[in-house]
């Protein structure tokens, strides 16, 4: 079937149709329409089938991308889905929210040669959505049932990935989460226009149907102690993520809304919840001048949400320029199409509340690169100015909450875990995802949850052998 592949010279890059900016900025539905079967096959056939697949090596999950693209091009969609799902417990989610331009597609050889990458994420999304529709997504059915139990703290992507892996091996798995719904940031942090919630809910329902137990509205440390969990379970995984907002550290920053507070409120409203702070207008952008401070993907989620809520204007302040933004360039482009104004090379100095609220800012210029390789922003003298804003949101990243009573932590507050086994200093206690890595990508959380589950299995089996001797 080799003749079906390597069509990147004769066939141009095509994305699923994107809804017009004016249309999509009025609702929270996903912005791309579905690929049709022939288009998905055509785009998969553009794959060069490289001897060294850089798309795969740049994927945190090491997904076997060239092979499932080949199967898609051949029309073997169920086989393609099965291969895709063998390394990724949530391919339809990664297909939607991974920054492919920084990962697999950015590393694609034909992208580097100027032909435009294979649209890997769109094909991945198409494959898994087709699999759900056709009934190819099978329930979890362990070959054996084990007596050992696992406790997982956190029902976000790392915790869910670990739960699936461990339940597939037959362990009795219970996931504890402080929220009232399963999914963590997948439900409450990521807006619907990137990830509609029924996509998450059908995935989590599969876990429930497969025997994973969830204890929601359970705040470990308050409703149940960590020591109690250790007594209940043969091993425990800490997968809480990081939720504490980094401070703006500017005068009067109490007038600033943390990004996650704003996004959680918006997502809860979309889910039909009564949110008093939204009803009162505190967390509602309608008819307001919105200023978002930050340049990552969370900032893009905030500015695009504000546009959909009917903001009078939306401005994003970022201290570097566009090429040096940490967020996905595709997300920035979507935001620009939807009418968001970007104020590049701008840094906040203070916030003014009251009758004429505004961000007092200064202009920046880029100096030598820092340790990350990006140019260091430096303040321009005598460049102060103001940006009027009725709703000011800070999206500066997240720090870890205090979990030092559970395991040894680093100077940043994250859990210190072995980079290979994810084991902490406490026997039988493991940690994965953002609580170890710091705020990062969903795909990395999935990878670490999956691999931590494998390490926990090895540990429990070793303990069983010792007990049997």
Automatic annotation (TrEMBL):
Keywords: 4Fe-4S, Iron, Iron-sulfur, Metal-binding, Oxidoreductase. The keyword rRNA-binding does not apply. Pfam families: Fer4_20, Pyr_redox_2. The keyword Membrane does not apply. Its EC number is 1.4.1.13. Signal peptide: none annotated. Residues 1-22 are annotated as: Disordered. It comes from the Bacteria. GO terms for molecular function: 4 iron, 4 sulfur cluster binding; glutamate synthase (NADPH) activity; metal ion binding. InterPro entries: DPD_II (IPR028261), FAD/NAD-bd_sf (IPR036188), FAD/NAD-binding_dom (IPR023753), GltD-like (IPR006006), Helical_ferredxn (IPR009051). Residues 152-449 form the FAD/NAD(P)-binding domain. Residues 24-135 form the Dihydroprymidine dehydrogenase domain. It is an enzyme of class 1 (oxidoreductase). PANTHER family: GLUTAMATE SYNTHASE [NADPH] SMALL CHAIN, GLUTAMATE SYNTHASE [NADPH] SMALL CHAIN-RELATED. This is Glutamate synthase [NADPH] small chain. It comes from Terricaulis silvestris. The gene is gltD_2.
């Amino acid at each position: 079937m080799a003749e079906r592949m390597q069509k990147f010279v004769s066939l141009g890059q095509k994305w699923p149709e994107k809804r017009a900016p004016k249309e999509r900025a009025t609702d929270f539905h996903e912005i791309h329409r579905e690929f049709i079967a022939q288009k998905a096959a055509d785009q998969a056939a553009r794959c060069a089938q490289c001897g060294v697949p850089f798309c795969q090596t740049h994927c945190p999950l090491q997904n076997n991308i060239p092979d499932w693209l080949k199967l898609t091009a051949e029309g073997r969609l169920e086989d393609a889905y099965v291969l895709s799902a063998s390394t990724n417990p949530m391919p339809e989610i990664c297909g939607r929210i991974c920054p492919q331009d920084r990962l697999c597609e950015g590393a694609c050889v034909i992208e580097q040669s100027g032909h435009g990458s294979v649209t890997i994420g769109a094909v991945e999304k198409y494959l898994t959505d087709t699999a759900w529709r056709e009934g190819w997504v099978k329930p979890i059915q362990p070959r054996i049932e084990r007596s050992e139990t696992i406790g997982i703290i956190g029902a976000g992507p790392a915790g869910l990935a670990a739960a699936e892996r461990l339940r597939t091996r037959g362990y009795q798995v219970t996931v504890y989460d402080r929220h009232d719904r399963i999914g963590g940031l997948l439900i409450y942090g990521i807006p619907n226009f990137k990830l509609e919630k029924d996509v998450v809910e059908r995935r989590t329902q599969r876990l429930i149907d497969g025997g994973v137990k969830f204890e929601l509205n359970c705040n470990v440390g308050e409703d149940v102690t960590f020591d109690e969990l250790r007594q209940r379970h043969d091993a425990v995984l800490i997968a809480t993520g990081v939720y504490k907002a980094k401070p703006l550290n500017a005068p009067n920053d109490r007038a600033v809304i943390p990004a996650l507070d704003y996004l959680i409120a918006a997502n809860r409203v979309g889910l039909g919840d009564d949110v008093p702070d939204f009803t009162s207008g505190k967390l509602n952008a309608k008819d307001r001048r919105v200023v978002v401070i930050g340049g990552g993907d969370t900032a893009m989620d905030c500015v695009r949400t504000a546009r959909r809520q009917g903001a009078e204007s939306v401005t994003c302040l970022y201290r570097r320029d566009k090429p040096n933004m940490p967020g996905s360039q595709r997300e920035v482009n979507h935001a620009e199409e939807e009418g968001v104004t970007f104020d590049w090379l701008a840094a906040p100095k203070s916030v003014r509340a009251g009758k004429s609220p505004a961000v007092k800012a200064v202009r920046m210029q880029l100096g030598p690169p820092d340790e990350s390789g990006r140019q260091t922003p430096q303040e321009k003298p005598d460049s102060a100015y103001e940006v009027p804003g009725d709703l000011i949101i800070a999206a500066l990243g997240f720090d870890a909450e205090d979990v030092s009573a559970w395991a040894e932590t680093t100077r940043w507050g994250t859990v210190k875990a072995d980079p290979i086994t994810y084991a902490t200093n406490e026997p039988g206690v493991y940690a994965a995802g953002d609580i170890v890595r710091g705020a990062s990508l969903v795909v990395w959380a999935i990878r670490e949850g999956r691999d931590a589950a494998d390490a926990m299995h090895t540990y429990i089996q070793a303990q069983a052998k010792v007990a049997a001797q």
